[in-house]
Write a structure and sequence with these properties.
disordered N terminus, 10-stranded antiparallel beta sheet, DUF1559 domain-containing protein, DUF1559, signal
Length: about 550
Amino acid sequence: MNHHRALVFAAVLLLASPTLADPEAAQRVRLALAPRVDDQTFVAAAVSIDAAWADGALGTLGRYGLLPPGGRATAEAHLEQAASLLGRLHTLGVREVAAVLAVPDVRLDSGVLVAVACEAPQKDDIVAMARGLLPPPLLEALQLRWEGDVLLMGVGKTLERYASLTPSPRSDLLDPLTEAFERDAAAAAVVSPGADVRRVVRELWPTLAPPLRDLDARLAADGFRYLRLTVRQPPAWHAELTLAAADDASAQRFKRLADGAIDAGVRFAKSEPRAAPVAGVVEQAATLLRPRLEGAALRVGVAHDDGEIAALAKGFVVPAVAAGQQAARRSQQMNDMKQIALGLLNYESARGALPAAAAICDPQGKPLLSWRVAILPYLEQQALYDRFHLDEPWDSPHNLKLAEVLPGPYFGSASDALRAAGKTTYLVPVAAGTAFAPIEDAKLTQRKVGKQAVHFRQGLSYRKVTDGTSNTVLIAQVADEHAVLWTKPQDWRVDLADPLAQLRQAGRDGFVTAYMDGSARYFPFEVQPELLRNALTISGGEVDHP
């Protein structure tokens, strides 16, 4: 599941709810969780399952900047898929998915207990569907067990512990949760430690640094009742975070602490150079999301029609999503480079030398096809390789048709425009002294490939790389405007006087490379040209490589 699809599905789980209130939801949630809470339980949560929320979820994603440019159609498809899934679960009898977490569950060999509350469930179908949805590693770890109309899911030790649990009445935990569903909640989560945890807090609470110094043991253990997050149904959804205190005086102390912490955060954002890009958004958030005091509670809420909150969310989310997408692209590019470099290394190991940039030629040495075609068998693309007419040029009718097939490593992070054109930005450096420098009188080797007599031009032997393979660039990412058809015997003609000339691109801050040892590295455009030039040569004797 990619980043965007995961984001859409997270919104689904958050916003899923019936169109109308279900008066029995609170009762089902209580019946599912009451036998599974004791004094050690400190979190209880539940979400209603229904497919009637899709339009609201899509609108929310767009309003809060969670849809990438041109991503609406993709989001609609994912939401339709998720709506169908949740609708199917509802048809089978699934009504709410609830969960509890206790102190003993916070261990590597244990975990949260999920309790699926059902109404006239079709049990076998629900289990089969659950198993189909879970990824294999999770499916192997989790166990599923029915207790009445409640399906329990958890790792083995968790289910064992809850099977022998002696429940305790926990109105402090379950009342706020079920109250949320009585008020048409789509989802709610409550944090409320039991008496023993509060005792430990009372005895071991440390003295905190400003601005939280006034949060002492007594206030933390006895002045705090619960923390609750409630989300009401879309499309007119509303989310609210409530801190319920023991009394008005405690609530006032929590209010002062919250204000002090928020103000400290604003001061930090304004004074810290690294936070400068978001300082304005932080200050706006401090104003809009400052909790309000209502008797013995602090509340902060956001609503679907709050334009200021939507603008604030975009201020946070859009840069974060952009940064995440950039990081994902860079990771994909690094993986692509490593895979291509490995293909070249394996080719060199099998043939005794790298391919020349124009690796496949006619008998007179005229270039026909690129090294990118020659190494296809070493990129797990043997079937595609076998389809080429290797004795014809890249622009023959047959081979041009094959250029429309895009091998993953050459196009993993390519733009839609580059994909449509069949062009790649992963090129090898062609200049005197580089790994793909033209070799005068380079040997042509004829080999049979199927029924074809194919002539391959031999390139550099690794034995001639005296600067060290870990210091020498093998492949680089050029700017989109210099991309080439991936089958064409054309590459990066390096101007060693200005090696960055064909690499710089607006909207990017650098480029990826692969080295002759198979590693991949990222270069910022601020790299000194001399250092890049040193990294491009195979025997310059330089040691000051980036």
